[in-house]
Structures are given as structure tokens and as C-alpha cells.
Amino acid sequence: MTLRMAALVRSTKSGEYTAIPKDVREAYARLYGPRWEALFKLPAGTPTHEAKTRHAEWLAEVETRFASLRAAAIRASTAVDST
Asked: Whole-model pTM?
């Protein structure tokens, strides 16, 4: 099984960068708001070591959301197939 990680993707049409994968974009937007990118922001005075730690925690949370949405989509399609 291939594991897809959150990555920065550049649109070939507009040249814009997006970070929410297409396969979960609609569901993510419905549940969490943002459709194209999940932003991580900290105050400018945040120490580097704390910023790195908090970024890692944030990234893990966002990737867990992606995985959960994919699992829900698989369960939904399996339920449809079995009926």
C-alpha cells in the first residue's frame, strides 16, 4: 500500500501551490474550512526549537485528518459496493 504524505503541489494551470490533496479536498473543506491549504502560523518571537516541535505536531494532526478522511471514503465505497 502506498502512503501519500501531505506535500506542496504546484498547479500546472495557475502556478499556485496547494497542500491539501485532491482526493480529500472536498471533505476536508466541509469539516475544517480550508479547501486549498492548511496554514501553520506562529508568532514571530517563538523560539526555533518550539516552532519545530509545534510544526511537527501540527503536521501530524493534518496528516491524520487526511488519513481519516481517506479511510471514511473507503468505508463508504465498500458499503455502497456491498449493497
From this structure: 0.70
Residue 12 is classified by DSSP as: T
Tell me what pLDDT residue 1 has.
45
User: Where does the chain show beta strands of DSSP type E?
Assistant: 9-10, 17-18
Question: Terminal CA-to-CA distance of the chain, rounded, Å?
Answer: 26
Query: What residue has cell string 502512503?
Result: 3
Q: Which residue ranges of the chain lie beneath pLDDT 70?
A: 1-11, 14-18, 80-83
Report yes or no: 37 and 18 within 8 Å, Cβ to Cβ. yes
- Helices 22-32 and 48-82: angle between axes, nearest 10 degrees: 100
β-pairing verdict for 9-10 and 17-18: antiparallel
Rounded to 10 degrees, what is the CA torsion of 53, 21, 41, 72?
-70
